[in-house]
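Morning!

This is the sequence you dropped in the shared folder:
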Amino acid sequence: MKQNDAVFQAVCSVLNVNSFDSAVALSKEQRSMVVAIVTEGILAGQVDFSTEAKAKHDTPAKVQIYTSGMVSNHLRKDKRLNGGEKYETKNPGSRAKKDPAIESMKLLQAQYEEGSDAWHEIASAIYDRETTLSAAKVKKPVIDIEAIPEYLRHLIQK
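The structure's back. Tokens below.
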């Protein structure tokens, strides 16, 4: 059984209903019961759980932690549970990809003792790169030349 179906069925079971007209709101106890039901399903092999996930979450406690997050995820995203709303990310871009140059320099820096000359040299290069990237993100305001009095227009930098 797919994970989203397992969460939906567990919520229906705990609330003793078959469908929802609005977003589901669970109490702490109800949410814990849903997590327990889905966790049992995963551990029993009744709910899909990839080989990679099994390797990473190799104890019942780790599976329960994983399931807790998964339940929260499906309560937000599954249209059957969230009132039919399309899920919108609250902070889009918050997981933007990191700059490969900075990541590589940090790996290089980790090979040196903190405080050494090489470490400081790399730290400086990282700072320079971060400054360059953040400056590129800053949008310069567009000046409406027509709105500036004629006697100040010679001060506009091009």
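Headline: Residues 100-137 form one domain.

More detail when I'm at my desk.
O.
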